[in-house]
Design a protein that fits this description.
Layout (H helix, E strand, L loop, with lengths): L1 E4 L7 H20 L3 E4 L6 H9 L2 E4 L9 E4 L6 H9 L3 E4 L3 H15 L3 E5 L5 H7 L9 E3 L14 E5 L5 H18 L3 E3 L5 H14 L4 E5 L5 H13 L3 E4 L7 H4 L3 E6 L5 H12 L1
Helix pairs in contact: 4-5, 7-8
Length: 284
């Protein structure tokens, strides 16, 4: 078997930074004798979260769930009201929010103060979407759009700004943005389009397309609840007839080992050691 890795795979810079900050928090917690938490799962990868748990890091979602300690804000960020709740409860906060998410929050805060209607393209319920919407003056008024049908909620009664979850599909965002432009023009409504998708997402997709042309099958490694990993899997299914989405070496099946040229890619929340483990299992 020949294994070919995608040129872009595994941890993105935002996740790497958040992981580094959790490791710093663990050391700080030992010195100060304080519990260490992440606010929500640090990343969408079960194996890595198990590793953090063994290091004494617990996951909490609410400031009232556990005694005050050191809490790391994950790369997805958190809403402003939630951050204040943790501070009021006495937690020491370490901000691991991805810089691109922080920029999206800044955009929402700015345009919200200017009374623009915020339209956010992304996955309903995703941590980043909630964090970015939570930067608005009235978060409940932010319209979250996952597909064209979501635009029915837009009233065009005031100026609009459109932006996106950083890991959303670039093609799908372009389709939604193009449709909204036409609707806004017909309504005579001001519209500002900001394509806030992280370039790493597009680069990862592009590298996968190039990989599919070189191999007989593809394995996509990453958490089953990771949105960017699911999109890699969907893209791989377009590029090749045989694709597997797995997240541990235990999921490697004999059929995979019979592939002559196997491509490997991984989501932005997949650690290098997990990719290495699966590659060893494939070749043993």
């Amino acid at each position: 078997m020949i294994l070919i890795r995608s040129e872009v795979l595994g941890f993105c810079s935002g996740v790497q930074s958040a992981v580094h900050k959790v490791k710093q928090a663990v050391e700080q917690g030992r010195v100060q004798h304080l519990p260490v938490y992440t606010i929500g799962p640090l990343i969408h990868n079960e194996q890595f979260m198990d590793y953090l748990q063994k290091q004494g890091v617990s996951v909490i979602d609410d400031a009232q769930e556990a005694p005050a300690g050191i809490a790391v804000i994950r790369a997805h960020g958190i809403a402003a009201v939630q951050e204040q709740q943790f501070r009021d409860a006495g937690f020491q906060l370490i901000d691991g929010t991805c810089p691109r998410v922080l920029n999206s929050q800044r955009i929402v805060r700015e345009y919200s103060q200017r009374s623009f209607q915020i339209v956010l393209v992304g996955d309903h319920g995703h941590g980043e979407v909630q964090a970015v919407a939570g930067a608005a003056r009235v978060p409940e008024e932010v319209i979250v759009v996952h597909d064209l049908s979501g635009l029915e909620a837009v009233t065009f009664s005031r100026p609009l700004v459109l932006l996106s979850q950083t890991t959303f599909s670039s093609d799908r965002f372009d389709a939604i943005a193009g449709h909204l432009v036409l609707l806004a023009e017909a309504a005579g409504c001001e519209l500002k389009v900001i394509k806030s998708i992280c370039p790493a997402t597009a680069n990862r997709q592009k590298a996968l397309i190039e990989l599919c042309a070189q191999v007989d099958a593809v394995i996509v490694i990453g958490g089953k609840n990771s949105s960017n990993t699911r999109r890699l899997y969907e893209a791989a299914r377009v590029g090749t007839s045989r694709v597997w989405h797995i997240n541990s070496r235990e999921e490697v099946v004999p059929e995979m080992k019979r592939v002559a040229r196997m491509g490997i890619t991984a989501g932005a929340s997949t650690p290098d050691w997990l990719i290495d483990e699966i590659e060893r299992e494939l070749t043993c």
